[in-house]
Amino acid sequence: MDSRRPNGPNVLITGTPGTGKTTLGAELAQRTGLNYINVGDLAKQEELYEGWDAQYQCPILNEDRVIDELEDTVGPGGNIVDYHGCDFFPERWFDIVFVLRTDNTILYKRLEQKGYTGKKLEDNIQCEIFQTILEEAVDSYKKDIVHELPSNTPDDLEANLDKITIWIEEWRNSH
Ligand code: DAT
Q1: What ipTM did this prediction achieve?
Q2: What is the pLDDT of residues 16-41, one digit of tens each?
Q3: H or E element: which one contains 68?
Q4: How far is CA 9 from the centre of its chain?
Q5: Which of 25, 28, 64, 151 has the fewest CB atoms within 10 Å, counting from its CB?
Q6: Under 8 Å CB-to-CB from 12, ≥6 apart: which residues?
Q7: For residue 51, what is the DSSP state?
Q8: Which of 14, 23, 155 to mutate to test the pocket of ligand 1 (most atoms within 8 A of CB)?
Q9: Is residue 21 marked as binding?
Q10: What residues pair up with 52 in beta bridges, in sequence order?
Q11: In sequence order, which residues have a C-beta less than 8 Å from that of residue 80 and are 6 or more positions away?
Q12: What is the distance in A from the centroid of ligand 1 to the CA of 108?
């Protein structure tokens, strides 16, 4: 057992909204027994905000409070963390980082279905086109722990579940 991570590895799943982080993360937690943390939902529940973004008409995340709130849970390992950003988490938290990627036309439909319109919809599509979250991940973590995963189809979802489940099993066997 890894004394630093008695509960297992910490996995970060990131990507533009709509790429499938929640779908993948929640199912992965079911399959592996790891603890699933949706940072957006946690922020809403605990009101971890600092003001209001007038442009996007949404509350602004208080990143320091998110870190304080999660430190005791994430420290000992065994978590799958889901968020559409990744540069404010402590680098030491994660053993592996997956960045989900979705083709524009597919992402556009998914975000429309979620009720996104106008500037919010366009900005999220731009975010995916410019690989913003992938670059953020590569800039924030060691390159060899960052992996890009296609997330367009149910087959992609299955392949990603298999791949990450195997990685977690191998981690458990070698620590
Ligand atoms: P996120 O948590 O990244 O915002 P989500 O998990 O809520 O995304 O997924 C957005 C929508 O896309 C939802 O209706 C489920 C669907 N979806 C997710 N992954 C998919 C995949 N690999 N193939 C087809 N649909 C997928």
Answers
A1: 0.99
A2: 999 999 999 999 999 999 999 999 99
A3: helix 63-74
A4: 15
A5: 64
A6: 81, 83, 86, 89, 93, 94, 96, 97, 98
A7: E
A8: 23
A9: yes
A10: 59
A11: 10, 11, 13, 25, 28, 29, 32, 34, 35, 36, 37
A12: 12
